[in-house]
Amino acid sequence: MKKYSLLLFVALFASIAVGQQTQLMLKTMKNIVLETKNLSLVLTIEENKDVNMVYLGKKLQDHIEYRQLANQYKQGHDYTNMYQSAYTASGTRNLLEPAISVEHADGNQSLDLKFVDQQLRTLDNNRKELIIQLKDELYAFHVELHYLTNYEENVIEQWAVIKHNEKKNVKLIKYASANLSLKGEDFYLRSFHGDWIAEMQREDEKLTHGIKTLDSKLGTRTNLFRSSYFALGLDGSINEHEGTVLIGGLDWSGNFRVDFEKDPQDNLRVVAGINNYAAHYSLAPGVDFFTPKFSFTVSTNGLGDGSRNLHDWARKRRLIDGYGERYTVLNNWESTYFNFDEQKISHLLDNTKKLGVDLFLLDDGWFGNKYPRNADTSALGDWSENKSKLPNGLISIVKEASDKDVKFGIWVEPEMVSPKSELYEKKPNWVVKQPKREEYYFRNQLVLDLSNPEVQDFVFHILDELFQKNPGLAYVKWDCNAVIYNAHSFYQKDQNNFYVDYTKGLYQVLDRFRQKYPTVPMMLCSGGGGRIDYGSLQYFTEYWPSDNTDPFDRIFMQYENSLFFPAIASVNHVTTFGKQELKFKIDVAMMGKMGFDLNLEELTSEELKFAQQAVKTYDQYKHIIWHGDLYRLSDPRKDNHASIAYVNKDKSEAIMFNYLVQYGQVSKTPTPVRWYGLDPQKQYKIQEINLHDANSWIASDLILSGDFLMKIGLNPVLNNNRKSVVLTLKAIN
Ligand code: DGJ
């Protein structure tokens, strides 16, 4: 079977009536059709060598019919004949939001990109990459448009490579990764805003004419106020199980900007890329500028299918060891904060073993001597063990952990520097700050200038030395708590390059780390979920969604994150936050990568027993959660409960998490929750797990068919006394 096709259709001529006049539309010379299992994206090369994007949606059975697209989409008058440009250049005919704007070496600001050539590369049996070369006819200025299709997962990755051979540097005023032109009825945007401890707050809106922008100018921790990931309803609304939605975002950890422009013809243009704010990048002749990837999928069966596509793609192509194993963790942050010593750690290692999790994670506070890290006001940058807390060094506790059969992990925040640190005293020019202005701090700290290769080297060595000196080290939590204020680099000749080169510098370090330590599990944290994107996640195994570990709030955050990111990557800790009973906390943590951050001594003996049992139970089911397919069955923002299920790939086992989110005497689930993703022919034995000293209300011999569960559903019987219920399904035929 031919899996891919890149089809070229020759000579399609169309004419269109506009008002009183009849105007000859541009003559379409060729169609380029990119296909995945369910989708096609169609580009045209016009007779004047413009490249347009004319279709993105369900793929057609008969390739010949792509020729008819232009005739069916007879829209209004396009003064410029480039509203649908596949990469809108500015300064010539353009009237809309550009994808690229430049100032040439001679100061001229016009750009007109024409088709030159195309290649199709086969990367493996699932992926193809189309490269379209464009060039300005007056200037030695080139752009390559890259479209990488992931056939099975229906995910398209899109980016641009920009280069020139002009006499001097060219200023890139805007340089997007992707410029989509979408047709639809009404367009609805689902985006996510937030702040510290309030990440991933969903907002839905109808897009009207004009431009709506999602952006960040924070430099680091760029998702603090919003995510660059979004969902776009293309046929009137956004639903879980039906309708056409595009889901995706920019795989970039720096400033981003995504513009949604409903154009005069009622189409939607999406222009996504690095934010050009304070970043008119100065590009030297002969240098390739790679924009980050904009990765997206389109589902014609609602958000659910789209998420499953993205999860499969991310586990295969983005996350480190996406289909692998993960450690369960006991973390000490919320139980000790900065206040610990060797003895306390020794005790926590015992507790790790007692609880039955795999790894102990030592958090912030273990370093700094001249300025000890006893609060968040000092020592970032001085990465040697604090002698009074750890007189025998990290090596001794790493060894003790290994003797106790516990793995050991460590927290670092290597991009940062405290003004009260030896590093700051020695290397003031490594710090991002305005030379003549007063410093302004975010969490009492400043950011190191990662656009400087010397600083990159320093940051790499922080980690490398930790691993060299402590061979048993098994895990890292990489934190990033500050945004960039007073953006100024002592290294950069042109400050316009700072923001972009910072993020590229960060990736250089992470890349170097991964060359040497390809599989060490590493958690991406940014004062909570301040940096969750697939640019950084390609170096990490997991991410920390929020410092807010109240399980009630976490239900919503974890639910929203699941739109883009698979459960294996979501680090969910059971802590003392929230007044809910331990069972509720554990049930919420289990819907991702479960861990703990609490003093076992604060648990009653019954609770401890329950937690220990839960760790064992989790071991039995974690593979379904990590490697299976996610189904969001009830939305906590619409219903009085959330229901989330994971089904393994052969549909023989599943696990369902249910949480009541509206409390009150009469709050309950009166109707069944309808399942998706099961095998209708299979009979499933249903069992309630994580019961804390209670009898299940689900009959112990309950067996239901996949057919019943998907047509009628299953009532988890949530109510005031059963605020969370976890059910497992096991096929018996
Ligand atoms: C912010 C993180 O989100 C927390 O989990 C913790 O690691 C602190 N930083 C430590 O300073």
Please describe the topology of this protein.
Layout: E1 7-12, E2 15-18, E3 21-24, E4 28-35, E5 39-46, E6 51-58, H1 69-72, E7 100-103, E8 113-122, E9 127-136, E10 141-150, E11 155-164, E12 170-182, E13 188-193, E14 201-206, E15 210-215, E16 230-233, E17 245-251, E18 256-262, E19 268-274, E20 281-283, E21 289-290, E22 293-299, H2 302-317, E23 329-331, H3 333-336, H4 342-355, E24 359-362, H5 393-403, E25 407-412, E26 416-417, H6 422-426, E27 446-447, H7 453-469, E28 473-478, H8 498-516, E29 522-524, E30 542-543, H9 551-561, E31 571-575, H10 582-589, E32 593-597, H11 605-627, E33 629-634, E34 641-647, E35 653-660, E36 683-689, E37 703-705, H12 706-711, E38 724-731
Parallel strand pairs: 23-24, 23-32, 24-25, 25-28, 28-29, 29-30, 31-32
Antiparallel strand pairs: 1-4, 2-3, 4-5, 5-6, 7-12, 8-9, 9-10, 10-11, 11-21, 11-22, 12-19, 12-20, 13-14, 13-16, 15-18, 16-17, 17-22, 18-19, 26-27, 33-34, 34-35, 35-38, 36-37, 36-38
Helix pairs in contact: 7-8, 9-10
Bound molecules: (2R,3S,4R,5S)-2-(hydroxymethyl)piperidine-3,4,5-triol (DGJ).
